[in-house]
Amino acid sequence: MLLQPFRIGNVEFANRILRSSMGGRTCYYDGTVSPAFTHFEKRFADNGVGGIISATISVTEARMSPLEYPTLHDDRYVGPLREAVEEIKSGNTCRYIIQLGDTGAHTHTSLRPQDQDRLSASSFFDLLYGYHNRSRSMTCKQIEAVIDNFAQAARRVTEARCDGVEITASKGYLIHQFLNPVTNRRTDKYGGSVENRFRFLREIVEAVRREIGRDFLFGVRLSAKDFNILPLNVRLPLVWPLRHYFVGNDLAETTYYARQLELLGIDYLHIDSGFGFPNPKGSPGDYPDEGFLTFVNTTRYLSTKAGLRATLFNIVPGPVRKRIFGLGYRFRPAANADFASIIRQSVGIPVIANGGFQDRRVIDDALASGKCDMVAIARPLLANPDLVRQFARGVDSPDNPCSFCTLCCSQTAVFPLGCYDERRFTSPEEMMKQIVAWSSPNAAMPASRLH
Ligand SMILES: Cc1cc2nc3c(=O)[nH]c(=O)nc-3n(C[C@H](O)[C@H](O)[C@H](O)COP(=O)(O)O)c2cc1C
Ligand code: SF4
């Protein structure tokens, strides 16, 4: 079933597999896509995925970090993106969807601390995500500006001749910070009730639709359940009721958002879960301790909080650290398919499930049982970019599978994109060759082997 074509709106996909968003340092310093971006994406397109959902592409110049990630905050980025997408799609049937986002107070890193990197729905301290000591509540004028940023960036997506646009309201990024009651403590029309927390996303969706027209493919990525407490995190001050603090949005709230989005004319929903990137529910797998250590040490200079966070990670003995911060991390195949299924039952638009899809049988089961219409895959495709071709040859599970060690996720803001599980390669040198090969048109991908 996974190899059958599927249509959403006006866009026909050759099969049901989408390469999920993978952000990395593949652009020039100003966020213009570079040949490294094109070669990275093209490898998936040429290897048979039905479509690609891009990395989260920034809609504002104020929050462009991590450095060397793509942006679409100005018209000058349209031409290079159009050329890149043309090249990625040449000689194959792959469709290309741009995911737009704004990290808000979860901005991962920056060259220097920037005040705009702390903007959010309201003011709070968050130990694990973002680098500022405390976030800052956006004014209504700033909210209006961000809505316009999304609308203008979406117009640029149509001008770059992509096949669709997706807004991320997940990953703990700015829109998600408005949806989640632990980060949205506002008392105005954008905070409090579920309806009010949804208002920011509603206004973005309306503004984007006005810009792109009714016929352009438009999806939203939503977190089915926030699981606020995973990974074990400290957010201050506490919020009441405690359910808002520990749980956040659950399926009841998300189903409301999904129905509203359908009424607003969205073409598809893309479902993951958790709050913050990475988190154990959005990236089901092992706790990537080595990757987090690299990340916190690389960003420790940015604020007192970032410095203390790094100190904490360094002084707490590894086994204890893994127990505390690794809480909730474990691999579950098709991790969010059951959530996608519940949401799919309450809307009439296609639903894409994300997280933990690697084996053909698991994917086919999710599709055939009607839990979702398509699946989005990231890490298993990074480990085996030809996964769809392997499925077409009748392979059920790749010989050298992704181990779901999650190292690639935890390092992507500071290291090049690639698979970092040494166990999958004959030597560390071969692993490095693979990482370098991702960005180059000339380098062959070294064969990887299990020891
Ligand atoms: C290296 C890497 C970078 C990622 N960057 C993004 C991103 O920019 N935006 C996003 O929404 N998700 C991002 N993700 C999350 C994936 O899209 C996906 O949701 C997650 O990895 C779970 O799917 P999987 O089990 O197929 O890997 C990234 C994942 C990886 C591995
Ligand atoms: S580092 Fe490699 S093996 Fe580990 S999760 Fe990423 S792609 Fe999979």
Summarize the structure.
This protein is an alpha/beta fold and 451 residues long. The protein has helices spanning 35-46, 78-89, 140-159, 174-179, 194-212, 242-246, 251-263, 289-298, 304-315, 318-325, 337-346, 360-368, 379-383, 387-392, 407-411, 428-437; strands spanning 6-8, 11-13, 17-19, 51-58, 95-101, 119-120, 125-126, 136-137, 164-169, 217-223, 235-236, 268-272, 351-354, 374-377.
Q: Give the mean pLDDT.
A: 96
The number of helical elements comes to 16
CATH architecture: Alpha-Beta Barrel
Strand count, sense and barrel status of the largest sheet are: 8 strands, parallel, barrel
Whole-Å distance between the termini?
33 Å
Shape: globular
- Rg of Cα set: 20 Å
- Bound small molecules, deduplicated: flavin mononucleotide, iron/sulfur cluster
The CATH class is identified as Alpha Beta
Number of domains in the coordinates?
1
CATH superfamily membership: Aldolase class I
Order of helices and strands: EEEHEHEEEEHEHHEEHHEHHHHEHEHHHH
Beta-strand portion reads 5-15%
The helix content is 25-40%
Number of strands: 14
Return the structural class: alpha/beta
- Stretches where pLDDT is under 50 for at least 5 consecutive residues are none
Instruction: State the strand order across the main sheet.
Output: 3-4-5-9-10-12-13-14
